[in-house]
Design brief:
By secondary structure, the chain is mainly α. The protein has one domain. Helices cover 66% and strands 2% of the residues. It is built from nine helices and two strands; from the N terminus they run αααββαααααα. The chain has a two-stranded antiparallel sheet with strand order 1-2. The longest helix is centred in the last third of the chain and has 34 residues.
């Protein structure tokens, strides 16, 4: 009886681990989480305001600006070291993309038994998700249509625009808007690259890599360039897109496998 219970426990554990390895499970979970968080930020906009206020320093208004209800600035945005760190992180996703392209070219130089098709697939997922996620979805679509002013542009933090909640799509911003953060989306894509590491190294390298990837979203909030919802949903959006692209490639592999075995 004990043996049967142990066997069932092991099989259940193996099934759970196998499920976690499936891109579909990751996509459904991350996609659902994204919408849940959007709903939370939309329903409780004070979360964004309180977070931004933690980095904002109020000061007296200049002459001729009496129409502004609040005047001040974000001190972190004036720190040369933090500005340099922000610029450094801005170019890391670009450098990572170039490295992946070079690795793919190197892999294509192999033929026959030395060619690794699985590696090509992993590189393709990474590159395609970077184009569809941070570039297309975030910078070309959402940041164009969202209409959400950045914190420093609103009258709550020294600007002139009215505050707009996450996901409202009716703010006064006309271009390069706050929802969602492109740099946070790039950081989220970088975090996904952990899957390119050898499995034995992921458990050790994943935590520090994730922590480093959170620096850029943190700075965007500290600079008053984005709200907490912008960076959270921006970071997570790349993870959703990465998982979606992985699902697509897995589906294509299964179709090819079925067509080869079908009579």
């Amino acid at each position: 009886m004990a043996y049967i219970l142990q066997s069932n426990s092991l099989s259940s554990k193996d099934a759970f681990v196998g499920l976690l390895r499936r891109p579909t499970a990751w996509f459904v979970s991350l996609f659902t989480l994204w919408w849940i968080l959007l709903g939370v930020f939309y329903a409780f906009p004070d979360i964004d305001i309180w977070t931004a206020q933690a980095f904002f320093r109020e000061s007296g208004c200049a002459l001729g600006s009496a129409d502004l209800r609040i005047c001040g600035y974000f001190p972190a945005a004036r720190e040369p070291v933090l500005i340099f760190v922000r610029k450094f992180y801005f170019y890391i996703p670009i450098a990572a993309g170039i490295v992946i392209i070079l690795l793919m070219i190197r892999n294509f130089q192999h033929h026959g038994s030395t060619y690794d098709s699985a590696r090509t697939k992993r590189y393709s997922v990474a590159l395609l998700s970077s184009i569809l996620g941070p570039y297309l979805l975030v910078n070309l679509i959402l940041k164009t249509i969202s209409g959400r002013p950045r914190p420093y542009e609103t009258d709550l933090f020294g600007g002139t625009h009215a505050f707009a909640s996450a996901g409202t799509l009716d703010g006064s911003c006309l271009s390069n808007c706050s929802f969602i953060s492109g740099e946070a989306a790039g950081a989220g894509w970088l975090a996904c690259l952990v899957v390119l590491l050898p499995p034995r190294l992921r458990i050790f390298l994943a935590p520090p890599i994730l922590m480093l990837c959170l620096v850029s979203p943190y700075l965007r909030v500290a600079f008053g360039g984005h709200y907490l919802s912008d960076v959270t949903l921006g970071f997570l959006s790349s993870c959703v897109v990465y998982a979606a692209v992985a699902v697509y490639y897995e589906t294509q592999e299964e179709k090819n496998r079925w067509s080869k075995t079908a009579l």
